[in-house]
Specification:
Elements: E1 2-5, E2 8-11, H1 15-26, E3 31-34, E4 46-49, E5 52-55, E6 60-61, H2 66-75, E7 79-81, E8 87-91, E9 97-100, H3 109-129, H4 140-144, H5 148-155, H6 159-174, H7 183-192, H8 196-200, H9 202-205, E10 208-210, H10 215-225, E11 229-230, E12 235-241, E13 244-249, E14 252-256, E15 258-261, E16 272-274, H11 279-286, E17 288-290, E18 293-300, H12 304-307, E19 310-315, E20 323-326, E21 335-342, H13 343-349, H14 354-369, E22 378-383, E23 396-398, H15 402-406, E24 417-419, H16 432-451, H17 457-460
Parallel strand pairs: 1-14, 2-3, 2-15, 3-11, 8-19, 12-16, 15-24
Antiparallel strand pairs: 4-5, 6-10, 7-10, 8-9, 12-13, 13-14, 17-23, 18-21, 18-22, 19-20, 20-21
Helix pairs in contact: 1-10, 1-16, 2-16, 3-6, 3-7, 5-6
Family: Belongs to the flavin monoamine oxidase family.
Pfam families: Amino_oxidase
Keywords: Oxidoreductase
Amino acid sequence: MSVLSRDVVIVGAGPSGLSAARKLRQSGLSVVVLEARDRVGGRTWTNQIDGATLEIGGQWVSPDQTALLGLLEELGLQTFSRYREGESVYLSAEGQRTRYTGELFPVSAHTAAEMEKLTVLLDELAAEIGAEEPWAHPRARELDTISFHHWLRQQSDDEEACNCIGLFIAGGMLTKPAHAFSVLQAVLMSASAGSFSNLVDDAFILDKRVVGGMQQVSELMAAELAEDVILNAPVRTISWQQDSVRVEAEGVSVEARRVVMAVPPNLYSRVSFNPPLPRRQHQMHQHQSLGLVIKVHAVYDTPFWRADGLSGTGFGAAELVQEVYDNTNYEDPRGTLVGFVSDEKADHAFTLSAAERKAAILQSIANYLGPQALEPVVYYESDWGSEEWTRGAYAASYDLGGLHRYGADQRTPVGPIHWSSSDLAAEGYQHVDGAVRIGQATATNIIAELASSSVNPAQSAPSSAGA
């Protein structure tokens, strides 16, 4: 086993860990990044499937994501706009199909008014509470101890309005049933994007993509770090004192002054900490979990929906595939659709055989865009729930009541151990932008800590007896 000495060791080579490593290196500190997978990128992954380039993980860039946009510019990466010309499709709970334009769903006047009322309420709460410290608001406990599902129905008697509004947080973002998380968690999700209105506006939140794929962000940062990114190195043990750590991974041991856990909170328990983490962390991490979503990719010889005057965008809260979008690659003559099957609908889908699931999903997409959707030339399901080093998607959120109890401590370092992932971000929460922001912020904090410390890493590293 090789033994390395660095100022900082980062666990996880996703956008957050690599952003932290990059900033630390630029400040003159020595780093090494340990990654369990055989690739970098974390929950971003651009892969070739049956000859088609697919974005298996995170992919979109919105106008407010300035940290990500700035990093893209630094790395020399270009973006392109998602195709959204033409009409969208709305499927009612009864299966009625309506073509429409604009942001508003083609629902009854009463339902539209109720959706607008709920949107205004959520926008007001998001503006008042914010994303940085929602747990500190005077109403935090009140809003964290009622589910989003029940709160919506306290505000409105229109079931269709409640389901449509719930779609954007439950299925669209947290990928958990609306009864499983709180209003405060929904407000955090909204505030992190600037407002709930931004989440409703697919033209905003799903604005652009990266030419060549989002994983390039991590790949290019990793290339800068070269041999200081080590793959196939799952971390097993972290032995720590107040100002030093020894990190034991497959095939490598690192002695350092600080460690950054740049993985989702549900993976913290995969590492043995010596001494154990404080009680607060043990409890907190048990209240954070990832959601469940199947990201479906269907590639066709041509984007046939465009010839029919359709944008490829569709919504249906009662559908198996609740959202579908045109996901055609830059300058690709073929057409690609992406659809999402979330939370309890994903539970059901996974009870089916692979063939049955594919048929049901494609039929749901065809309900939006017509029978041609039944015959893709490439079909693929991104199943992050079964991925060993992720175990869910898109990111972690708290169970009912957990955010106001534990949120204030989720980013607090434990001795030399720092926490950094999109799951813990404020602005950009659950997005690549949030991963970049918190990675850079974590690096800034460590730089300041080490600049004020006179600790010599060689003198402070744990002894072999403590490992």
